[in-house]
């Protein structure tokens, strides 16, 4: 191989690595967002500059000619590949500084995760349903473009809140996010992001509900905007087909098994009658257990439910505030509340996972952990992207 050919190969490999290193875990859509393209170009240029500088110092007397004996060429390529390896390690280290990582706040706010856990626990002891809210917050925030706390923004200063979307119906306890944020601000002002509060509170909420202990990475930054006009394009409706639901999750890197596991979050909490009456009136959905349908009609006595009234039914009457596999057992008894729940049993791509999770709570918890982690790391803002809000409800004004 001649020197010019060797350099061409190195240039191609360096370019590939820079793109690969920055796009692993991200799809092409994500690479095009948030200034990543510009950062890729910069990093590729840096690699080339370092590479050719070293080659010129050690081996190349004339950058415009390709000459020399075969032994010399082999020496050039061997040394060049040694340098390339060092460059790759440098790039991996550099990019790692701006990616999510475990114990991100070890230096800047050592007690950050402990404070979140303390506040989440205190809130759970006073208001048990907050733990359910934290899980739902993570889903609604991360599914819509990025895990960036855009969900928490209130309508103000030209921003329309995502909380105004019909997909956010029934969500609550946002005020307690401020309780957690205030505790963190007292300890470490302007250090812990609201996006990480969403992630860590979900982690701790899952544990308090009897779910798995999950190690959650941190280092997210907060969005500068709301995606209120796009929420319905990302979050499936409870009456959507299972194929559409699977497609939405697949776009996040979560397959059928993970989707079935995440829907196990329906094991806790409750469903407003507004989202149930279509399965009860004017006739009962034939896929719904008749006896359970009578219970639901008792909870939702009219086909026109008032969204402002507290009219709801529990997802799980046996272990209503425990994140366990009872949800799947109820599905097999045709007692799922939402249409999407019922479809998990009837669809051949999901029913085997329903049966397996119904039989093994440990398996459910394992798959739930994996899927939740994948969701929590969806296209986060990191490094110099976004900001750390002082108040999770508003973009910083100064």
From TrEMBL:
**UniProt site positions, description: Transition state stabilizer:** 136
Per UniProt, the cofactor note for this protein states: Binds 1 heme b (iron(II)-protoporphyrin IX) group per subunit. Binds 2 calcium ions per subunit.
Q: Where in the cell is it found?
A: Secreted
Any idea which positions bind Ca(2+) 1? 141, 144, 148, 150, 162
> InterPro entries attached here?
Haem_peroxidase, Haem_peroxidase_sf, Peroxidase_pln, Secretory_peroxidase
List, in alphabetical order, the GO biological process terms annotated in this UniProt record: hydrogen peroxide catabolic process; response to oxidative stress; rhythmic process
Taxonomically, the superkingdom here is Eukaryota
Residue ranges constituting the Plant heme peroxidase family profile domain according to the UniProt record: 99-396
Instruction: Give the primary localization class.
Output: secreted
Q: Which cofactor does it need?
A: heme b; Ca(2+)
Binding-site positions, Ca(2+) 2:
316, 319, 324
Q: Which GO terms describe its molecular function?
A: heme binding; lactoperoxidase activity; metal ion binding
Which UniProt keywords are given for this protein, alphabetically ordered? Biological rhythms, Calcium, Disulfide bond, Glycoprotein, Heme, Hydrogen peroxide, Iron, Metal-binding, Oxidoreductase, Peroxidase, Secreted, Signal
> What protein name applies here?
Peroxidase
Q: Which organism is it from?
A: Ilex paraguariensis
């Amino acid at each position: 191989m001649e020197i010019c050919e060797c350099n061409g190969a190195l240039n191609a490999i360096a370019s590939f690595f820079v793109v690969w290193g920055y796009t692993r875990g991200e799809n092409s859509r994500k690479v095009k967002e948030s200034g990543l393209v510009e950062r890729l170009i910069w990093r590729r240029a840096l690699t080339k500059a370092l590479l050719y500088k070293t080659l010129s110092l050690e081996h190349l007397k004339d950058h415009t000619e390709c000459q020399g004996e075969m032994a010399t060429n082999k020496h050039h390529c061997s040394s060049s590949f040694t340098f390339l390896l060092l460059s790759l390690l440098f790039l991996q280290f550099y990019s790692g500084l701006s990616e999510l990582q475990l114990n991100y706040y070890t230096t800047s706010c050592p007690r950050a995760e402990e404070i979140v856990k303390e506040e989440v626990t205190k809130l759970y002891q006073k208001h048990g349903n907050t733990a359910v809210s934290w899980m739902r917050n993570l889903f609604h925030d991360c599914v819509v473009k990025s895990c960036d706390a855009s969900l928490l923004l209130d309508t103000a200063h030209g921003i329309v809140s995502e909380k105004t979307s019909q997909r956010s119906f029934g969500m609550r306890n946002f005020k307690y996010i401020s309780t957690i944020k205030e505790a963190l601000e007292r300890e470490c002002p302007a250090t812990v992001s609201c996006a990480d509060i969403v992630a860590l509170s979900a982690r701790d909420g899952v544990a308090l509900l009897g779910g798995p202990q999950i190690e959650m990475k941190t280092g997210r930054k907060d969005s500068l905007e709301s995606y209120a006009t796009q929420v319905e394009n990302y979050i499936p409706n409870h009456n959507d087909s299972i194929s559409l639901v699977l497609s939405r999750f697949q776009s996040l890197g979560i397959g059928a098994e993970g989707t079935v596991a995440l829907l196990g979050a329906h094991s806790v909490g409750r469903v407003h009658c507004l989202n149930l009456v279509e399965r009860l009136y004017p006739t009962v959905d034939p896929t719904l257990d008749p006896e359970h349908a009578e219970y639901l009609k008792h909870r939702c006595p009219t086909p026109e439910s008032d969204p402002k009234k507290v009219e709801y039914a529990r997802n799980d009457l046996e272990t209503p505030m425990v994140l366990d596999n009872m949800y799947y057992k109820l599905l097999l008894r045709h007692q799922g509340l939402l249409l999407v729940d019922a479809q998990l049993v009837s669809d051949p791509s999901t029913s085997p996972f329903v049966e397996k999770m119904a039989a093994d709570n440990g398996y459910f918890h394992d798959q739930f952990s994996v899927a939740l982690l994948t969701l929590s790391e969806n296209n986060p803002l990191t490094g110099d992207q976004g900001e750390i809000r002082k108040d999770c409800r508003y973009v910083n004004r100064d």
